[in-house]
Amino acid sequence: MAIKDTPEEWQVTATAVPFTGNKTSVRTDDVVMPDGNVVRRDYQVHPGSVAVLALDENDRVLVIRQYRHPVRHRLWEIPAGLLDVPGENPLSAAQRELYEEAHVKAEEWHVLTDVYPTPGGCDEAVRIFFARDLSDVEGERFEVEEEEADMELARVPLRDLVRGVLAGELHNTCLAVGVLALSAALTGDGVEALRPADAPWPARPFEA
């Protein structure tokens, strides 16, 4: 038996959108269960996101510390952002986020992994990229605001982040999945075996 997620869509008899926000909304679907009963499911509709695990020449990961109000924590994260434009190329979005949040560019890119962070309550899909051969971007820094105006930037050894995740000290989904996936890749077939940066992404089809 192949262990592989497969697309499937159960019948929806009614749908409504009780809330629409700036970037996301809430949808309510009446879904037919296998036994024929109809149950109501509420979930957040999300445009999708990209994240970047950027590794420098000293095996340090570029991380950002940012306040996240819903969980009342200041979390260490990797650069990430929304897919603001429908059909946007995720690699272009990831390169933009790396520049805007860290003022860094990378010459080598791969897809590290694709995840649904909270599939029980949100349809968000996230593509996490691996980037290396880093260099600072010349010119003025991107102007940040709101929570991003208070961000801290650091470079932390990959092994220290893995330890922090396993110790329950680091909680951000993209950081945790990213550092563990990269650690597994490095001890397995190597990063050269990762998917190319333009690999198809059925969860969020994009323009080449």
UniProtKB/TrEMBL annotation:
Gene3D superfamilies, alphabetized = Nucleoside Triphosphate Pyrophosphohydrolase (3.90.79.10)
Molecular function GO terms recorded = hydrolase activity
A Pfam family found in this protein is NUDIX
Q: Which InterPro entries match?
A: NUDIX_hydrolase-like_dom_sf, NUDIX_hydrolase_dom
Nudix hydrolase domain: residues covered: 44-178
Taxonomically, the superkingdom here is: Bacteria
Q: Which UniProt keywords apply?
A: Hydrolase
Protein name listed in UniProt:
NUDIX hydrolase
Q: Which organism is it from?
A: Streptomyces chryseus
Specify the taxonomic lineage.
Bacteria, Bacillati, Actinomycetota, Actinomycetes, Kitasatosporales
